[in-house]
UniProtKB/TrEMBL annotation:
Native species: Elysia chlorotica (Eastern emerald elysia)
Keyword set includes Transmembrane: yes
Protein name: Major facilitator superfamily (MFS) profile domain-containing protein
Membrane topology: Multi-pass membrane protein
Record domain Major facilitator superfamily (MFS) profile: where: 8-328
Alphabetic keyword roster: Membrane, Transmembrane, Transmembrane helix
Length: 328
């Protein structure tokens, strides 16, 4: 069963890496698309925001959906339709069609994370969940680290339409592989959960979940600001070279990889020593949120045009460590 678990987990890991990279492909290619399609920055903002909107709508309900539908089917379907909608983006010829395709692409990606969470919870013991959740979370960091370089190569070599078709075809093919793996090796363990609807509805409004929701929202705001605007902030406001700005993003993702794994491992260790009590997770999350806030404030107020790359990367690493660790 251990070998089967590793195969299933690896499939989930690679699958979600695909989903994250597909979601970031449009922002990565935005400058090239703007140039070839004569789009303005406002058009790009509308297109990218449409994707975020579609993703947000479905992700909000991905957990309940994964409780009703087998998470293996949900994840495979999310991968397949992500590839389909990304391919449809290549045949669009107007801002409106680009925005619709972008919205549908985000819509298709939404269920993937909820499906991964439910499937992982069914496959591992509660005292091991945070560790494996942390490792699975690294998939988004890997997509964020490798994605810009892979996109730059594909865009330069083939153009944005051929690049998108290559990525979308790969994602659709992998969805078929994932479906077969889940079908053959889960042995019926990964099924939709059977909980009463009243209990589920009451749990949604519990104070603990409200605290988690608020914390996740604040951390996600920081993640969005750093990921989307961090490089531009360094170049325009701090007069740093583009190379240093790029290293800021890489250091943040590296910090996220280590923070995700470390936070999951320490949380599981503390819970095992406290007879399954989940309260240590709140303390760890609070500490990492404070660490992220300190790193962000230090980055804003201590970095100048004369700051070294090492100094900037230090704060980027701290931000990523605290941010992704808190999410885990």
């Amino acid at each position: 069963m251990e070998r089967n678990f590793l195969l299933i987990f690896s499939t989930m890991f690679i699958g979600y890496t695909n989903v994250v990279y597909d979601r970031q492909s449009i922002p990565y290619a935005a400058p090239v698309i703007a140039k070839t399609e004569n789009l303005q920055n406002s058009h790009l903002g509308f297109i990218i925001s449409s994707q975020h909107l579609g993703y947000m709508i479905v992700k909000a309900f991905s957990g309940p959906i994964a409780d009703l539908v087998a998470p293996t089917i949900l994840l495979s379907a999310s991968l397949f339709f992500t590839g389909v909608t990304l391919a449809s983006f290549t045949v669009a010829s107007s801002v409106l069609l680009f925005a619709v395709s972008s919205f549908l692409c985000g819509f298709a990606q939404g269920p993937a994370w909820g499906a991964c969470a439910v499937l992982l919870k069914q496959l591992v013991k509660p005292e091991q969940f945070a560790t494996w959740w942390g490792v699975l979370s690294v998939s988004s960091n890997i997509a964020g680290t490798i994605g810009p370089f892979l996109s730059a190569y594909l865009l330069e070599a083939y153009g944005w339409r051929a690049a998108f078709l290559t990525v979308s075809t790969t994602t659709m093919a992998f969805s078929g592989f994932a479906f077969v793996v889940f079908k053959l090796f889960t042995y019926g363990d990964a099924k939709a959960t059977d909980k009463g609807s009243t209990r589920q509805f009451r749990d949604v409004f519990s104070p603990q979940l409200g605290l988690v929701f608020l914390s996740y929202t604040l951390v996600s705001l920081v993640r969005g600001a750093c990921s989307d605007w961090g490089q531009m902030y360094l170049v325009q406001s701090k007069q740093q070279p583009i190379l240093v700005a790029s290293s800021f993003s890489s250091s943040q993702e590296i910090g996220g990889i280590i923070g995700s794994i470390a936070a999951g491992y320490v949380a599981d260790l503390m819970i095992s020593k406290n007879s399954g009590n989940v309260k240590p997770r709140y303390a760890i999350s609070l500490f990492l949120t404070v660490l992220q806030t300190f790193g962000l404030l230090a980055f804003i107020f201590s970095v100048t045009a004369q700051s070294s790359q090492l100094w900037i990367n230090l704060w980027a690493f701290m931000i990523g460590f605290g941010m992704y660790g808190a999410i885990t």
